[in-house]
TrEMBL record:
The chain crosses the membrane at residues 20-44, 56-77, 86-104, 116-137, 144-167, 173-195, 254-274, 294-312, 319-337, 343-365, 377-397, 403-429. The keyword Transmembrane applies. It holds the Pfam family Sugar_tr. This is MFS transporter. Keywords: Membrane, Transmembrane, Transmembrane helix, Transport. It is found in: Cell membrane. Its main location: membrane. SUPFAM superfamilies: MFS general substrate transporter (SSF103473). Residues 20-433 form the Major facilitator superfamily (MFS) profile domain. The keyword Transmembrane applies.
Length: 460
């Protein structure tokens, strides 16, 4: 295998890459949609099932707890049995658990369905993004991987629009809402049928003939295994879950876990309880609650547009640092305004949405670039899992936080959490832009994240 022939890393962008990006975006779309639709469904579910504050928090957090287990378990399994099998099976699970949720009659049934739905969502992050990362050229990898996560915000925005349309279904409107992710899961499933397995993963399992067949199918009969520069090392079939904590990788695992968690805690709390948060600002009525929630979610999408351009222009590290800094300032300011009114609070939330949308997609870019093929999905799954521990806790506590600390106090807590992410990025984050997966992840690249940062001229 030639070390200088990098078919995948240096290939031009093709229709196959664009199609695979769209198909891989289905999971994040459903994640954003399912997480946000529950916040609207709770408007009719709360009186319908006579929910207490604790039960509301449980329902809001259930899918995030499920994502914890789904990411950890199925990320590891994806590295063991392959990307393609899981790429299909995961969508079947998403559709089934969404439909079952619509027929729930007890609180525990809703919680269980949301938990199982979360497991399927958590599985899709390592499955889809690992497969996509292993096909993408280095020049477009950050932008297209990031685009899949910007679609998360599109899904969330769609949920608020759909929720507004479905509110006229009466007391049982919540049943239609929680079942509706199944429609998108089935559509995504049909699109993904026929997607080839990753040739990098096939090589990591020693299945050279199958890898060769995929290369010829995707790139043409004139190409062969010698046209791939692989990040696969010898004896990778023995790779274990614990490998992400060994050698130079433990710092990368620590960085991914901290920055991802710091991003999603305020993000999920806002999305899940956007109507409640806006009510605490003093806003009321369908136009303000549904419309305000839709506007905030659309700002996440709008923020992602310059973010996807900047990620290749200024790099991953600077983009993450700047977005964290802006969020800290925006969320902290209302706490220092005496008798703060709705307008400053809404502006703070809007700035948060723009800045978060500009960099939240790095949650799937960084871990896919920092870990080798044999443990890539494991690492993405672990990052997904750890991030959901904090986000599940914050979502469970969010209703009580609004009551106890008010809107400004809740935003200040989000600022403090974001500050932790900022500090971790300063200390641990490497720059990975415009590098091949081979350069970033093979064992002959022995530099730690901090060493990589210094040698590339990043901030000290």
């Amino acid at each position: 295998m030639s070390a200088t022939s990098n078919l995948i890393d240096d290939a031009p962008l093709t229709w196959f890459h664009k199609k695979l990006t769209v198909f891989s975006s289905g999971g994040p779309f459903i994640d954003g949609y399912a997480l946000s639709i529950i916040g609207i469904a709770l408007i009719t579910m709360t009186p319908g099932l006579k929910l207490s504050t604790g039960e509301i928090g449980m329902i809001g957090a259930a899918s995030l707890v499920g994502i914890f287990f789904g990411g950890a378990i199925f990320g590891w399994l994806t590295d063991k049995i392959g990307r393609h099998k899981m790429y299909i099976a995961d969508l079947i699970a998403l559709a089934v658990f969404s439909l079952l949720n619509g027929f729930a009659n007890e609180v525990w049934q809703v919680v269980l369905c949301r938990f199982l739905l979360g497991m399927a969502i958590g599985a899709d992050y390592p499955i889809a993004t690992s497969l996509l990362a292993e096909f993408l050229p280095k020049k477009y990898r950050g932008r297209l991987l990031g685009a899949t996560f910007v679609v998360w915000a599109v899904g969330a925005a769609s949920a608020f629009a759909v929720g507004y349309l479905l509110r006229s279904f009466g007391p049982d409107a919540w049943r239609v809402m929680v079942a509706s992710p199944a429609v998108f899961a089935i559509i995504t499933l049909l699109c993904r049928l026929g997607t080839p397995e990753s040739p990098r993963w096939l090589l990591s399992r020693g299945r050279k003939d199958e890898a060769r067949a995929v290369i010829k199918q995707v790139y043409g009969h004139q190409y062969d295994l010698s046209d791939i520069s692989s990040d696969v090392d010898a004896n990778t079939s023995r790779a274990k879950f614990t490998d992400i904590f060994k050698g130079r990788l433990w710092k990368r695992t620590l960085f991914v876990s901290i920055f991802w968690t710091a991003q999603v805690i305020p993000l999920f709390a806002v999305y899940t309880f956007a109507p409640d948060l806006l009510s605490s600002f003093g806003l009321s009525g369908d136009a303000n609650l549904y419309g305000g929630s839709l506007l905030i979610s659309m700002l996440f999408v709008i923020g992602g547009i310059p973010g996807l351009w900047l990620v290749e222009r200024i790099g991953r590290r600077k983009l993450l640092l700047w977005s964290f800094a802006v969020i800290v300032v925006a969320l902290a300011i209302p706490a220092f305004i005496h008798d703060v009114q709705a307008t400053p609070l809404f502006i703070a939330l809007a700035i948060f949405a723009l800045a978060s949308g500009a960099s939240s997609f790095l949650e799937v870019v960084y871990p896919n670039e920092l870990f080798p093929t044999e443990i890539r999905a494991t690492a993405v799954g672990f990052g997904t899992a750890i991030s959901r521990v904090g986000s599940a806790a914050s979502t469970y506590l969010m209703p009580a936080a609004i009551i106890s600390f008010g809107a400004a106090g809740s935003l200040l807590i989000g600022a403090g959490i974001t500050l932790v992410g900022l500090v971790a990025t300063l200390i641990l984050a490497p720059e990975t832009a415009n590098k091949t997966l081979h350069e970033l992840t093979t064992k002959n690249n022995t530099a730690s994240p901090t060493e990589i940062k210094v040698t590339e001229g990043s901030l000290p």
